[in-house]
């Protein structure tokens, strides 16, 4: 029971306990967040839509866009049994910045209109790299902020 | 911006698994028992035993309910539990000199 527990851990023990707590919090946040596969599929889909825009008929673009529906249904099913995240209390600066950069990057990439399939393939690689990197950074920043929020906020 | 929590060492939370339970519950509003068990990688009985100790201390709340014919168990930190956990983390940070 609590009376039998050690009361004053050493500096090394305290650091180890803090690291364990951090790992447990991060694990819970990652497992409650949208799966990595969802992010990958969303990035691939957005990249494909941005790359082949202008090369194919609008109907094909709409059909590809409709793939977001099964993707979102999958996400809803996945998150059904996961933990409910706490709402972020303040504005997340890093998350907001990455989101803004993603929107700007998508807008700039839309200006580059591919005229051949080879160019479209190149554009898709660039889109995947840029959006994938930004999405990864966005997820990492929000995870860190949630851990900090969980370990620092009493409400 | 809230002021930093007052450091207060809590012997009940300090046990490794109980600290991990609180750390897992801190960033979420609630978690299902099965999800928590999966994250901590422990047996049902072990998790139940530690959750009972935290519940008896008023740190954790366990809610049982049925949805679509299936029973669910939701675990969450109470306001007292959250405060105790945050203060315990602050105490650990103070020991390490990270504050």
From TrEMBL, chain A:
Entry keyword set: Membrane, Transmembrane, Transmembrane helix
Domain of life, per lineage: Bacteria
Transmembrane segments: 37-55, 61-79, 91-111, 117-136
Record's protein name: Uncharacterized protein
TrEMBL record, chain B:
Ranges of residues in domain Winged helix DNA-binding: 17-95
SUPFAM superfamilies associated with the record: Winged helix' DNA-binding domain
InterPro entries for the chain: WH-like_DNA-bd_sf, WH_DNA-bd_dom, WH_DNA-bd_sf
Pfam families: HTH_34 (PF13601)
Superkingdom, natural source: Bacteria
Name this protein carries in UniProt: MarR family transcriptional regulator
Organism in which the protein naturally occurs: Glutamicibacter uratoxydans (Arthrobacter uratoxydans)
Source lineage: Bacteria, Bacillati, Actinomycetota, Actinomycetes, Micrococcales
